[in-house]
Task: inverse folding
């Protein structure tokens, strides 16, 4: 039974009409929870130890760039020298909760670091508040653009509110991260592919070099599947980003990015949402490391096989539904198989989610899964985090991994059914 709106499909129980009010209620509950959690963490631990921890890296990098040069931001000794005063001057150490000081490495190309030279002209706290405001405003503005593109549909509004109040965006703002650029890069690449503007899509996707581990699986199929215009656009954007980075940071800057990624601390994986995070948790719970790694590798192979079968079922389709499913399937696969990925990076799935929910063929389970992914996981996180923030992050990472696996399973089943139907029709 159809509900008569693009985003909605009635539940068998007839409760479909309550889906939007329930989503808004959960969004309000999540907002209150985020507020309480943030106040608690700032009150207990201050700033730049946990809250604003990634901005600590960006602010220190801006200072280093102004004082010495952009190539110097990749020097771990200098990062320690510039980050430590921020840690010691603005945070309070709480035994059993706070993290001891360690210098965060910078894994970003110089072009993405350069804007922080301007923010570092401000005192640290105003700079952090301004950066959070820029991120929040940019995310709100971009989601509004998509609601407008979807003709201000009521359910699109609710989905956009849920995305803005999702746990991924909350953590993006809390830590002072940069994932709004990923949200825009992937969203505009998807939009332009749907409009047949393949060259422009390539240019936008090149912005994903800010976190290349999130776009690698998108790039390869698109380069094989699309015309040379997409490849030319992506190559042009990549050369521009690489060229500007080379001009700003020199070869030392590019080498520093590679070394930073190569020496990325493994302890950051435990709260992640990838297969290696699952392996780490298995080992921590007594599973032999070899067996845990074997289980992880099997997971990766099965996930990649399922993803390839989805792509095969899609064939050469170019309709909007296929593009949305392609992006969502590829991104959830990427979040599972990449070596490192924190939950805040899942914000990149926002626009594909928005469009997948719009499919009239989607059953009610899709909206429920979206609400769990965006809001319920956040409510669980802050509820647990009020008592044990570290364990809450670990739980959230595994929960997000399981949700992404379920998304992939649903997409796999949907496209295998569609392929079987197309085969029978032919």
Result:
């Amino acid at each position: 039974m159809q509900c008569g709106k693009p985003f909605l499909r009635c539940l068998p129980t007839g409760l479909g009409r309550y889906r939007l009010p329930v989503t808004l209620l959960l969004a309000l509950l999540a907002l209150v929870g985020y507020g309480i959690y943030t106040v608690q963490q700032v009150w207990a631990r201050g700033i730049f130890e946990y809250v604003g921890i990634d901005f600590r890296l960006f602010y220190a990098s801006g200072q280093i760039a102004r004082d010495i040069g952009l190539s110097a931001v990749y020097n771990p000794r200098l990062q320690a020298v510039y980050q430590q005063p921020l840690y010691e001057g603005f945070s309070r150490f709480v035994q059993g909760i706070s993290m001891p000081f360690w210098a965060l490495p910078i894994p970003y190309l110089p072009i993405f670091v350069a804007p922080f030279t301007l923010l570092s002209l401000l005192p640290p706290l105003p700079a952090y508040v301004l950066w959070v405001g820029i991120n929040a405003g940019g995310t709100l503005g971009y989601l509004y653009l998509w609601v407008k593109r979807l003709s201000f549909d009521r359910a699109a509004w609710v989905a956009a509110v849920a995305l803005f109040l999702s746990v991924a965006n909350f953590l993006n703002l809390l830590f002072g991260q940069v994932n709004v650029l990923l949200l825009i890069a992937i969203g505009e690449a998807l939009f332009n592919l749907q409009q047949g503007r393949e060259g422009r899509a390539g240019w936008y996707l090149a912005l994903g070099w800010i976190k290349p581990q999130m776009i690698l699986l998108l790039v390869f199929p698109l380069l094989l599947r699309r015309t040379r215009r997409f490849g030319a656009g992506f190559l042009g954007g990549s050369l521009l980003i690489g060229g500007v980075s080379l001009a700003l940071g020199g070869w030392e800057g590019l080498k520093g990015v590679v070394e930073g990624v190569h020496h990325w601390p493994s302890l950051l994986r435990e709260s992640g949402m990838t297969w290696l995070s699952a392996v780490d948790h298995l080992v921590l719970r007594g599973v032999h490391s070899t067996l845990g790694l074997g289980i992880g590798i099997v997971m990766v192979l099965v996930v990649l096989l399922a993803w390839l079968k989805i792509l095969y079922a899609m064939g050469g389709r170019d309709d909007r539904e296929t593009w949305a499913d392609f992006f969502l399937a590829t991104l959830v696969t990427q979040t599972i198989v990449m070596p490192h990925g924190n939950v805040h990076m899942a914000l990149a799935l926002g626009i594909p989610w928005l469009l997948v929910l719009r499919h009239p063929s989607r059953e009610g389970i899709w909206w429920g899964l979206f609400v769990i992914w965006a809001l319920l996981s956040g409510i669980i996180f802050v509820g647990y985090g009020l008592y044990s923030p570290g364990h809450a992050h670990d739980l959230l990472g595994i929960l997000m991994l399981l949700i992404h696996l379920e998304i992939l399973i649903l997409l796999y089943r949907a496209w295998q059914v569609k392929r079987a139907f197309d085969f029978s029709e032919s």
